Each structure stands twice: as C-alpha cells, then as structure tokens.
C-alpha cells in the first residue's frame, strides 16, 4: 500500500485549497480588516465550520470509515453500499432537524457562542443574521463528508481532497461580484458559504457515481449498523475534535476581549491551518482506512509500521513548518495581509498569535496521526477521556492567561493543550503495544530536528537583512522579499535534511509507489 502516494495526493490538493484560501483571506482582510463586520463574519463562519469539522469530517469519518472499510474488506462493495445508503437516509433527517432548530434558536445560541458581543447590539444582531445565512452549509457539507468518507475508503482521495477548493472559489466570487450588492460584504460572503456547500455536495455525489458507488435515498431506519455508528459518533466527536473544541472555546472567550481579538486569532489560525491541513489532515485521512484494513486482516506488525512511517512523514513536514512560522511570523503576516483595512497594528497582533499557535503545530498534526490508532480499533472511549482532560486544561489556561497576554494567551493555551493530548495518546497506545517507535523513526526525528535548527538560523539571518523591505509600503517589495525568505528556508532545510539523513531518495521513491487495487468482492 503506497501511503506516501496517498498523503501526497491529499496534501497536494489541500495545498491548492490553502492557496485559494490565502487569496480569499487577502480579499477579506483588505475589505473587512479587523472591524465589527469582520468579527461578526468570522463567528458566523466558525460556527457551522466547527460543527462540520467536529461532527461531519471529524467524528463522522472516524466512526464511519473503519466500519465502511471493514465491510468492504469482509463482505464486499454491495454490502458497503447498503451501509452507506442506510447512513445517508438517517443523516439527512438529523441534519434537517439541526438546521431548522438552529435557525429558530440562533439569538439564544449566540449568547453562548459569542457572549462578549451582547454588549454591542449592532454587532450581536449582525452576527446572528450572518450565522443564520451560513448555517445551511452544515447540512450540505456533512452529506459531502459521508461521500468523501466513501471515496477515501476506496483509496480514491483526489475528489474529496479537492472539495475545499470549491468553498474558497465560491467565497472569492461572492466578495468580488456581490460584495457591493448586499447590505455588507459580510452578507455576500455568508451567502457564498452556503452556496459552496451545495456545490461541494454535488461534486462528490458525481465523484461517487463515477467510482461505482452511486447511492439511493432509502426510508430512514435505525438498523443495527446505523445504531452502531451513532453510538460511536458522540465519543468520536470529542476524541478526534479536541483541537476544534478548544478553538471554539477560544473564540467564545475572545469575544470577551477588546474588539479585533476574534479577527487576530482568525488570521493567525488560517496560516497555522496551512501545514496542519496539508500534512496533518492528509496523513490522518490516508492512515485511517489503511490501519482499519490492516487491523481487520490481523496484520499487527504492518499496522505498527504504517503508524511509524506516518509519524515520520508528519514530523518531516510539520516540525520545520512550525519553526518557520515562529521565526518569521511578522514578515509573513505583513506581506500577506497588511493592506487596505488591515494595518500595522493588526499585523503585529496577528503575528504574536501566530507564534503561539505555531508552537503547537507539530502536536496538532501528531494528534491526527495517533487518533487513527484508536479509531481503527473502534476504541472511542480512550480518546474521549484524554480529550476531556485537554479541554479542561485549555479552559483553565485561557482564563489564567487572557488577563496577561490577551488573545495571545488563548492561542498559547491551545498549543499547551495540544502537546498534552499527544503525550497521553502516545502513552495509551504504547501501553497496549499499539505504538512501538522503531530505530528508523528515532534516527529520522533526530535528523529533522537538526535540519530545522539550521533552517531557523538561515531564516533569521535572511529576514534581518530584508527587514526594510517588509516595512516598505510597496506590495511588490514585500511579496518579493517573502518569496526570497521562503525559498531560502526551503532550500536550506531540504539540503540539511539530506545531510542529516532525515530522508533519502530511495525512501521517497518507495513511499510514492503505485498502490494496490481495492477489493471488489468479499475477502476470503
């Protein structure tokens, strides 16, 4: 099985999505800046996006993919199709109910989700309106997550990985074409979000049909398979989505801080999400169905090896990314966002938050790699216990640090909580014999650390020399300087990584070998 090839596929499309997302965020920063409309829209975007990440792509995938992939391995594709159709019917009814109830209760929900906005009636009412406009996105993207889980279980990762690109394109069109036709640009963006959900669902429905997995809509019934899935989803939501829960907690508490805090955290998190999405989500997406099948086939040693190689790939890419974001936070924020309504003060505040977020980036990625070790074995209880501890720590640190470090304290709390999550997950797997770091992994981690230190020194020297260019109001100078900085960092890191033997060409070729086909009939 070519896990490296699958990770490259998911990561490549995710990178394209992040590039489109950057274009989107540059437009939003220039038009909305960090004012009240920006704060309102970011809450409106975060709420359905949080529920989508937590329950649809997070909990749903970690509960559904092992069950679906195991059914393919044991009973064949037709039995798996029946399972998917049963789940689709029940999921649709649940989602319709959630969307309708949320629309009715939105003003009261906002007292919980953004309590600080209640002191500013205009901002509060705008947030309620925009969240009502974005909330239908939850229904369509959750259905799309089901279709994406099916494709991932068939080892067809490209279509699902490309789906977020459609959201970014729809939002770009919304702000460029309709931004001046609506009450505020935030209204146009909110409409664009919900429309994107429809587009993403249709895209994946067509992709599933082409993969020979066209689903019919059945009468909803709580079959044994559906009951089993529903029992797993609740615990999986907290176990797999602890970072999302902590982000939502930070958003709620940030609404209590002075205006702009929500926006500072949003822009910093968007940059931190690039390596997290390209690496963490890609590795976790590829690893879960592979581990599920290996465990179902009683291939324990193969499962251990797969997890070690996944950690290796994740750290090779995420650790230097974290170091680079911490060392070069200010020039990156300045070059990408400082224009229009986004001024130097916003750049400095967002850069500070980015440093704090980046400190936890390797942890956020490793959580994506370690949790499949539990979910592939359909153990949702242990990650829930660990997640509960981590969320409690995050909340305590939020209230302790917000008075000293303001919004930066919220970002730092998230990173500390993330590292505790990794330590507890790894300890739990190791204690059961499901995680055994081999000699190759230990040597690779040493090489990655050494190469990252060399890269950090290079970045510091280059950005010091280019300092005046980043303060220049000429955008071409700033962007050009950022390109030089990134190129220098990448070049030095990969050269040092070769020197420290963090990777070899032979290993890279082996990781990208073409994969074996998916079974189409019950396994013997």
Molecular structure report:
With about 525 residues, this protein is an all-alpha fold. It has one domain (about 5-435). Helix content is about 80%, strand content about 0%. It has 20 helices and no strands. The chain has helices spanning about 5-30, 35-75, 75-115, 120-135, 135-155, 160-175, 185-210, 225-240, 240-255, 260-295, 300-325, 330-335, 345-360, 360-375, 380-405, 405-430, 440-465, 465-470, 475-500, 505-510. The protein is globular. Residues about 515-524 have low confidence and may be disordered.
Salient structural properties:
524 residues, disordered C terminus, mainly alpha, 82% helix
How many domains is the backbone divided into? 1
Number of strands: 0
- Our Rg estimate from Cα atoms comes to 22 Å
Low-confidence stretches: 514-524
Q: Which shape, going by the Cα principal axes?
A: globular
Helical amount among residues, as a percent range? over 70%
Which structural class best describes the helix and strand composition? mainly alpha
How are the SSEs ordered, and which strands pair?
Blueprint (H helix, E strand, L loop, with lengths): L2 H30 L3 H40 L1 H37 L7 H14 L1 H18 L4 H20 L7 H26 L13 H17 L1 H13 L6 H36 L3 H28 L1 H9 L6 H15 L2 H15 L5 H25 L1 H25 L7 H27 L1 H5 L3 H25 L5 H7 L13
Helix pairs in contact: 1-6, 1-10, 2-3, 2-4, 2-5, 2-7, 2-8, 2-9, 2-10, 3-4, 3-5, 4-7, 5-7, 6-7, 8-15, 9-15, 9-16, 10-11, 10-13, 10-14, 11-13, 11-14, 11-17, 12-13, 12-19, 13-16, 14-16, 15-16, 17-19
